[in-house]
Amino acid sequence: MSSKETTPADIVRPTKSTSRWYYLIGGVATLVALVWLVGWGWQLENGLIVTWLADWGSGGVTWGLYIGAFMWWVGIAHGGIILSAVVRLFGIDRYQPVARLAELLTIGALGMSGLYVLIHTSRPDRLVSSVAPVYTWTAQTSPLAWGVTVLVLYFMLTFMYLALTLRYDIHRLRDQLPDHFGPLYSVITVGYTEREDDIIQHVVWWLALGIIVLAPLLLHGGVMPWLLSLLPSMPGWRGAIQGPQFLSIALTSAIAGIIIVTATLRRAYDWDHILTDSMLRGLTMWLGLFSLLLVWLQFQQVISSVYAPAMDARTVMAAKLANPIYTVAIGLMALTLVYILAQTLRPGVFTPGRSVLASVFVLYATLSEKVLFVVEGIDHPAFSLYEAVPGHYFPSPIEVASVAGTLAMCTLFFLVVLKMVPVIELHAVENDDARDEDTPT
Question: Which pLDDT belongs to residue 63?
């Protein structure tokens, strides 16, 4: 039971109160985003040559951090919507306060992944002049075309989630929400009657079931890695393990992102009684479980590629293992697992700050793995139409800035949403009250 009473006023407080930390974080995020947008403008003016990815140039790759980050953001979106779906499908009240946060993280991540599609085309007009006319054909064979399909489907499912659950909250909290967003609230609640509440709960449950079935089998954990693993010229992408690997990275990244968002909001709005230590500790345990799965799958890939492998597979794995980025990523994953094991054995080791740091380690490691998957996969083909280019790929400053820029823009997205709608569901408050009433004194 919470030591402090939870009220509806708690979850609408961010829409009314603005601290100096809000302005500070917003100002820094805006500055970072603007700096990157200037760099993107330079790329639009001069082409992808400014990133060394214009052709088989520096290091001999045409895909680099842009595509790796695209897949990373899609994975975060994928994991976020799965977490929300699990909470709703199985009625896990303990994690209900983070269900909407997971959905908002999915929307933000989808926006950033879609932005990377625009960035990598060099000229956004090519999406209309070159990609759209042949989309029905490329969607059957292209991993990136399928990635865009997944992106659109995720957005539709998540938008339906948010729209349906927000109707209930806004109708009941309208008097406590800002008046200047009145037109928006009117649109969201148009035609609302309390008779639809039970129907909405059933619809949301079926949506959650659909996501749980589709996501691992057909979306980010299915068709997209299958298409990559079946490309005969790229030994670095081969193997049936790619589907589970994609799924483990998605879930690990998403839980890490949710821990960071949850701990930040808890600190900013004194929500210790809503986003409790028990909840954060539980999320950290799930982070450990999926991190362990990720590391185990990495180990499987390493073993199968260094013990009596085909020569092309050995070459790819040798290049990956020799890359210090991969070494650092695996090292950070190991530190995360040590911390989570320690907090399991001794609960006093847990602190929200340590869980946030572990989550940052995980996000860096998963982004690194995605980038190396793309780069090493394409840099060591089984057969090549081009002459070998000396050197090795390293992200350009423009590419690195894009990661900081998209993280800043996702932060700004959350800051804007905080002022518009409750980011924690009213049902979470009501369920908390119900649990308190059921608790014997």
Answer: 82
Q: DSSP string of 170-189?
A: HHHHGGGS-GGGHHHHHHHT
3-class secondary-structure state, position 383: coil
- Owner of token pair 């760099």: 39
Residues 345-352: contacts with CB under 8 Å, at least 24 apart? 347/281, 350/277, 350/280, 350/281, 350/284, 352/263, 352/266, 352/267, 352/277, 352/280
How far out from the chain centre does Cα 407 lie? 11
Spatial distance between the Cα atoms of 281 and 399, rounded to a whole number of angstroms: 35
More confident residue, 314 or 135: 314
Whether residue 3 is predicted with pLDDT greater than 60 in this model: the reply is no
Helix (H, G, I), strand (E, B) or coil at 38: helix
- Between CA 255 and CA 80 the distance in angstroms is 7
Catalogue the long-range contacts made by 390-394 (C-beta closer than 8 Å, 24 or more residues apart): 391/58, 391/59, 391/60, 392/59, 393/52, 393/58, 393/59, 393/60, 393/61, 393/64, 394/58, 394/59
pLDDT tens per residue across span 330-374:
999 999 999 999 998 998 899 999 999 999 999 999 999 999 888
Instruction: Classify 142 in phi/psi space as left (phi over 0), alpha (psi -120 to 50) or beta.
Output: beta
Supply 425's token pair.
Answer: 């569901």
